[in-house]
Amino acid sequence: MVYLTFDDGPSRVTPQVLGILQQENVKATFFVLGDGAQSHPDLIREIRAQGHVIGNHSYDHNYKDLYSGFTHFWNQIKQTEEILKQITGERPRLVRAPGGTAGHFDDTYFNLMKQAGYTVTDWTVDSGDSARRGVPAADIVSASAANLKASRVVLLLHDGSGHEESAKALPRIIEAYKAAGYSFRTLDPEEDPVQFKVHGNKAMAARPRPQMSWVAANIGPTAALLKGDRPLVVEAAGSSFTLKPGEYSLENGRYYVPLRAVVERLGGQVTWDSQARCGRVLLSGRPIMADASGGGLTVTVDGGERTVPSSVALRGDVLWLPLRDLLGTAGYASVSASSTPEERRVEAS
After folding, report:
1. Is 61 a catalytic residue?
2. Locate the NodB homology domain: which residues (predicted)?
3. Identified catalytic residue from 7, 122, 159, 291
4. Looking at 52, 61, 158, 163, which residue is catalytic?
5. pLDDT single digits (tens) 196-221
6. Residue 158 appears among annotated catalytic residues
7. Whole-prediction pTM
8. Domain assignments of the chain as residue spans, ordered by start
9. Strand 153-158 vs strand 2-9: parallel, antiparallel, or unpaired?
10. Which fold has domain 230-348?
11. Pairwise CA distance, residues 142 & 144, whole Å
């Protein structure tokens, strides 16, 4: 089995590659850059239309930014993901780190990407087409087909700008693998990926690690989003709105939601009191204080204050809390939850 993979596109080289693959009836996996996808959305659509698989290769391939800390890498992956979602309607789970994971990834990168639902993959054979500018096609063919005895080959090629020789080499690469009896497949995020071993260094050890609040605000919601989990429909006193997967979380049987997003959809108002570290809410005519320091929810009713214990917490820079607690303090006496294969639902009255 051989998996042809192309990094750094799309570019003006990509149509050449697509034409050859179509002629040879071979499917491949394209790890695309976000800035290239923005510039060439038509090529992204063409890659998908021809039945190839699209993976995420960061936004701009900037090593200094990507490997200065995990949150920088994450931001580029998410930026590209949103661009591809706009173009194709899908969020790719396959990710290839620019330059590969060796010397770049540590356990933090690997573990958090896996927890978020991504499959990070390297390669088993390097075509050498990016070793220097203008590597001749003959050299690329030679490196690509140097070992035709391995049972599984993940071949690294490039279709970024300046890689015309890679396109020129492609027909002979395909011919060599076909002659050796290989079949061609695309990478699957559900299959075990090829990953280089972690070799730490001083630079990696000095990199900042994400705070737990950042992890809670980003990793879990993304995992839900990539799983294609069900939306949460909230109906309260005639108002109805939907939270998409990733816009809420289900933890220990409770729905947790971002305070501002829900209050505003219910017609209320929220302001952030940075000095008191709390969200000040006006909902259903009731002033409510959501204390991010562990004080729960304090509601003012008929001139008196009542405090309700609640797991209010800052996740990143967003206040999250249990939906049932928020609805209860807002005066909804009855809150019920149900679910179907298509959606989750909370009704309050």
Report:
1. no
2. 1-185
3. 7
4. 158
5. 988 878 888 889 999 998 998 899 88
6. yes
7. 0.74
8. 2-210, 230-348
9. parallel
10. Copper Amine Oxidase; Chain A, domain 1 (3.30.457)
11. 6
